[in-house]
């Protein structure tokens, strides 16, 4: 990171166009939405919807993450490749979790001596 | 043309042709680094998913020992510090030095507050012996008093109903116990088996996240110190920008950790 | 540009002394330091291999006891994998060649590059320290509960591997950014040399898989130090989950090893067949395809470990699909050679060995990917032979090919062609003798990692050991030849082989800044315009008048 110590303060016209300045209004609105969504997650857990609760919580978290990514992290105004890098890495996490979860129904209770249940003859 | 640009921007590293190339390279490098961070945490999320998938009863039981109010408070703190960080980047871009100083200070403060709350939580777990694997030594009576809801879960339903694990086949080839036995075995228990798994996952996830918060604070602190030397301006805000990206990633991860660890239903 | 530029100032003479090397930001010096370190660990790993093979000459004790044997094969694996073969081609040749191939002055982040080398050194020190503290005996995979119960220094070795992982990640970040942002005018993605496509795909894997190794080893360290209980079955943890974690990195990691080797192959085959590469796009995109598919097949290491049946079937099917892009490459290389005027210089001999050995290694991989066959062959010498055919017959052979190919560029000296060919021949013979016998005994049931064996396997083991000794002799010849060339070799021309990629357009060895002006990039495989020039002993572009 530190080797991109860049230009002088009186940089050329080209340097001034680097990056996009996000309007303050947008930043505050995003923050407000994030707070609301956080409260929504806390609220949603109080309603019993069975296994749906987990997915609702994850969906809200996902929306929050998208907001942070798009506005706080400038993805909306940036090179699309940056978004591809982030989304790509998330896809690989999903892949990892998904394939590891395939085993879920194949586990048996622990077989450590002292813990294992008695075997019936 | 190329030489002209080189002349205009004499402070960029020699191997870049233009300031834009330098800026875009740095930013891309940062994003790819963030992708590696996502995968680093991805491993822990996989561990979480696998254990929760196999032993939902442990997660339902043990999450009640976490204080979701403190978790929510930390969420608000981190979100707000993310706002101040994004705002700080904006003021760096606009060259507003005083605002930048203030906002970075607020961000640092937010990070410290987050860690403070975390310390309170960890201390509570430590006191009650609610720790990972080998060190899990709960004091049931005391803990039950303080967390009546956890004891409730146990009374609600036999835990055999709450696990995904199918009863093993009876016979010489496999583990042999019938569904009834599973239930009977668990209903008598004071708590589900292997609760330490939840705390192992909890401490691994929040611990690694905490380390990232510390790293983020160090990076922002470094930016802050350099700020006093007048290091940043409208055409020179990369360091603030990169530190900001890192801080937002830390926030992103917490956004997922909070509901997964504190708000289990 | 022209071959006779005997520039006084090249990167080797630019600054003297230890500090000018160890703290350099020059990607070429970092590449050379990597090459030296990596070669050192190749020799160390080879030394352990010799110990293993000597021990296995006879059933029972030959030169060491069983516990030492466990440590020796673990060290052979860990040193070869983490210190030689993973950094191997990308860190040594990639660092040296990538920026020059792009006509750039350096990689995008020279400091990060240096940091990557320093981390490599630190990681290597931890690994060596672990050998001194009581070498690990778990096998290089550190499976739990072996690694949670053994008394050897698992923490030091895994910490070393963890640090080496960061070194690898930083190299990957540098390569991706450099290729994205620093291509010269005229070099579109479809004119990127295939070696760079391979490095790019490698970097994708380094970026996405290595962090998972990081968290795996971190959890393992925490497991040993604090007993966190995530992987330790005694604490309710799940050892199969450890295997998922480990192979999510370590299977893609074998493509971190083989993809750069394939990139080297694409360069060598085209240059030494004096022919434009056949199927450029197919080779380029198949590299990326391999990178992506490599993430989908890790479960084929766990067919017998109690993974779910559905998982087994999915992973088996996906494993077969990796054969497609690999075969696309092999067919395109063969098509490139077809009707070319093939020159059997030393690098090409390695390339041809690669084709044959990787072919065998790849095809036996399909045996192991098939569920029913795998149950029979799992954990036998068949597996050992398979991965040595791909890793050594593939990666090491390509590494040696790359070394002979870029040696004149790196050091400005030509080695003896005769000795080079002799070494290549000995490597080929010794390799096949060592590992083909292992295919046979593996399929007959000789288990891997065993200290003792029944008598009827002894003849195979003796053959294998003789092959290993031949390999050792081959390496002595090879190293002697290259070292001799440094002092006595004839001065290398800028372009001794007649290749059209940009690194051959600057002097040998290249000047400190590679190119004063970014060169105009053309088709990297258009070899027609290069003609041999007796006076400089190398190739030079046909001048416009001659060409017309």
List strands and helices in order, with pairings.
The complex is a heterotrimer of chains A (121), B (265) and C (548).
Chain A: H1 13-16, H2 24-44, H3 52-72, H4 80-101
Chain B: H1 2-8, H2 19-54, H3 56-62, H4 68-94, H5 97-127, H6 140-146, H7 148-156, H8 179-188, H9 196-228, H10 238-262
Chain C: H1 18-22, H2 27-55, H3 66-85, H4 88-101, H5 110-134, H6 146-149, H7 154-181, H8 194-226, H9 239-272, H10 280-293, H11 309-337, H12 346-369, H13 371-377, H14 381-411, E1 413-414, H15 417-443, H16 458-488, E2 490-491, E3 530-533, E4 538-541, H17 544-547
Antiparallel strand pairs in C: 1-2, 3-4
Helix pairs in contact in C: 2-3, 2-4, 2-5, 2-16, 4-7, 4-8, 4-14, 5-7, 7-8, 8-9, 8-10, 9-10, 9-11, 9-12, 9-14, 10-11, 11-12, 12-14, 12-15, 14-15, 15-16
Give a summary of the structure in a few sentences:
Chain A is mainly alpha-helical and 121 residues long.
For the termini of chain B, the CA-CA separation is 64 Å
* CATH class term of chain B: Mainly Alpha
Q: How many strands, what sense, and barrel or not for the largest sheet of chain C? A: 2 strands, antiparallel
Per CATH, the class of chain C reads Mainly Alpha
> What CATH architecture of chain B do you see?
Up-down Bundle
Largest interface: A-B, 74 and 87 residues
β-strand amount of chain C: under 5%
CATH topology of chain B: Four Helix Bundle (Hemerythrin (Met), subunit A)
The CATH superfamily name of chain B is Cytochrome c oxidase, subunit III, four-helix bundle
Helix content of chain B: over 70%
- Which strands sit side by side, in order, in the main sheet of chain C? 1-2
List the secondary-structure elements of chain B in sequence, H or E: HHHHHHHHHH
Question: Mean pLDDT of chain C, as a whole number?
Answer: 92
Please name the CATH topology of chain C.
Cytochrome C Oxidase, Chain A
Q: Which regions of chain B contain 5 or more consecutive residues with pLDDT less than 50?
A: 1-10, 157-189
Strand content of chain B: under 5%
The total of helices of chain B stands at 10
């Amino acid at each position: 990171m530190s080797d991109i110590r860049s230009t002088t303060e009186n940089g050329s016209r080209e340097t001034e166009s680097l990056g996009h300045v996000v309007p303050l209004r947008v930043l505050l609105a995003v923050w407000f939405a994030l707070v609301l969504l956080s409260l929504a997650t806390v609220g949603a857990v109080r309603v019993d919807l069975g296994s749906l609760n987990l997915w609702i919580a994850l969906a809200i978290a996902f929306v929050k993450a998208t907001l942070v990514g798009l506005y706080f992290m400038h993805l909306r105004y940036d090179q699309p490749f940056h978004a591809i890098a982030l989304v790509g890495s998330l896809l690989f996490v999903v892949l990892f979790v998904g394939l590891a979860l395939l085993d879920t129904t194949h586990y048996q209770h622990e077989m450590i001596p002292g813990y294992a249940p008695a075997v019936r003859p | 043309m190329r030489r002209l640009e080189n002349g205009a921007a004499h402070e960029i590293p020699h191997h870049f042709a233009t300031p834009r190339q330098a800026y875009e390279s740095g930013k891309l490098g940062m994003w790819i680094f963030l992708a590696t961070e996502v995968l680093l945490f991805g491993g822990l999320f996989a561990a979480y998913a696998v254990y929760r998938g196999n032993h939902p009863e442990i997660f339902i039981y043990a999450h009640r020992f976490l204080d979701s109010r403190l978790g929510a408070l930390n969420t608000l703190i981190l979100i707000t510090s993310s706002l101040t960080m994004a705002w700080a980047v904006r003021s760096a871009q606009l060259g507003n030095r005083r605002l930048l100083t203030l906002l970075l200070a607020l961000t640092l403060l937010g990070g410290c507050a987050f860690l403070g709350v975390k310390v309170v939580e960890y201390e509570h777990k430590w006191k009650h012996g609610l720790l990972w694997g080998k060190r899990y030594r709960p004091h049931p009576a005391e803990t039950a008093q303080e967390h009546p809801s956890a004891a409730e879960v146990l009374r609600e339903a036999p835990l055999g109903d709450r696990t995904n694990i199918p009863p093993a086949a009876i016979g010489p080839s496999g583990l042999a116990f019938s569904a009834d036995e599973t239930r009977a075995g668990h209903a008598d228990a004071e708590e589900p088996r292997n609760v330490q798994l939840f705390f192992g996952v909890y401490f691994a996830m929040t611990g690694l996240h905490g380390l990232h918060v510390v790293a983020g604070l160090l990076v922002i602190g470094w930016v802050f110190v350099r700020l006093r030397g007048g290091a940043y301006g409208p055409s020179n805000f990369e360091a603030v920008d990169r530190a900001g990206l890192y801080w937002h990633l830390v926030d992103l991860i917490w956004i997922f950790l909070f509901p997964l660890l504190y708000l289990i239903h | 540009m022209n071959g006779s530029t005997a520039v006084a100032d090249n990167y080797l003479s630019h600054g003297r002394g230890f500090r000018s090397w160890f703290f350099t930001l020059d990607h070429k010096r970092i590449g050379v330091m990597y090459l030296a370190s990596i070669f050192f660990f190749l020799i160390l790993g080879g030394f352990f291999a010799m110990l293993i093979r000597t021990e296995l000459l006879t059933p029972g004790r030959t030169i060491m006891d069983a516990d030492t044997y466990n440590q020796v094969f673990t060290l052979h694996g860990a040193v070869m994998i983490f210190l030689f073969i993973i950094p191997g081609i990308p860190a040594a040749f990639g660092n040296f060649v990538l920026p020059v191939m792009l006509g750039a002055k350096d990689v995008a982040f020279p400091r990060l590059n240096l940091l990557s080398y320093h981390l490599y050194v630190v990681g290597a020190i931890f690994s060596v320290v672990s050998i001194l503290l009581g070498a690990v005996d778990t096998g290089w995979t550190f499976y739990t509960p072996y690694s949670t119960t053994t008394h050897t220094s698992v923490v030091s070795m895994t910490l070393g591997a963890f640090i080496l992982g960061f070194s690898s990640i930083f190299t990957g970040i540098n390569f991706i950014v450099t290729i994205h942002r620093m291509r010269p005018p005229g070099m579109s993605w479809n004119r990127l040399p295939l070696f760079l496509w391979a490095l790019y795909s490698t970097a994708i894997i380094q970026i996405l898989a290595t962090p998972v190794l990081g968290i795996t080893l971190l959890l393992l360290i925490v497991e040993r130090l604090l007993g966190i209980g995530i992987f330790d079955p005694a604490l309710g943890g799940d050892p199969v989950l450890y295997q998922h974690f480990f192979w999510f990195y370590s299977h893609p990691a074998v493509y971190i090893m083989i993809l750069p080797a394939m990139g080297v192959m694409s360069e060598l085959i085209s240059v030494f067949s004096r022919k434009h590469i056949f199927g450029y796009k197919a080779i380029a995109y198949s590299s990326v395809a391999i990178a992506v598919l490599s993430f989908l097949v890790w479960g084929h290491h766990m067919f017998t470990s109690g993974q779910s049946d559905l998982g087994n079937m999915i992973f088996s099917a996906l494993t077969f699909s990796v054969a497609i892009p690999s075969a696309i490459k092999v067919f395109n290389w063969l098509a490139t050679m077809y009707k070319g005027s093939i020159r059997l210089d030393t690098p090409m001999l390695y390339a041809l060995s690669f084709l044959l050995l990787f072919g065998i290694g790849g095809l036996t991989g399909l045996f192991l990917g098939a569920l029913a066959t795998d149950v029979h062959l799992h954990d036998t010498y068949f597996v050992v032979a398979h991965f040595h055919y791909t890793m050594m017959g593939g990666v090491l052979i390509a590494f040696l090919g790359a070394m002979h190919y870029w040696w004149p560029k790196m050091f400005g000296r030509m080695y003896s062609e005769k000795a080079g060919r002799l070494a290549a021949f000995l490597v080929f013979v010794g390799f096949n003798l060592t590992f083909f016998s292992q295919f046979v005994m593996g399929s007959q049931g000789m288990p891997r990692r065993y200290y003792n064996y029944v008598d009827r396997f002894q003849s195979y083991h003796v053959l294998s050991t003789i092959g290993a000794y031949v390999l050792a002799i081959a390496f002595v010849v090879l190293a002697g030849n290259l070292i001799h060339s440094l002092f006595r070799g004839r001065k290398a021309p800028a372009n001794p082989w007649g290749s059209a990629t940009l690194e051959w357009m600057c002097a040998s060895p290249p000047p400190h800044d590679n190119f004063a002006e970014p060169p105009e990039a053309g088709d990297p495989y258009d070899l027609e315009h290069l003609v041999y020039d007796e006076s400089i002993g190398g190739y030079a572009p046909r001048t416009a008048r001659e060409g017309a």
